[in-house]
Amino acid sequence: MSQRQRQARRSFDFHEWDTPPSSEELAAAWRQYIEPCIEAFGVDRCMFESNFPPDKQSGGYTELWNAFKRITAGASAAEKTALYSGTAARVYKLIAP
What we know:
single chain
């Protein structure tokens, strides 16, 4: 683990870094929070979202979603569908594609 990854795990001061965090660094920082939430509530009560553009000072949009993909790499296709679109479509009563 790089020094930046160790730093990312300890704090969320990404906006103070000289360069934006990578998806690996974001995943390392967030995994300890996201995985227990998914385990506790299940994929039918969790969904991924972003706060862009306000959060772009702390990292890139592509890196954000790639971090989510890294965190869910071991999830099944059905679990990923729920987390990335299905739960949101159901909760917000949207028509799923």
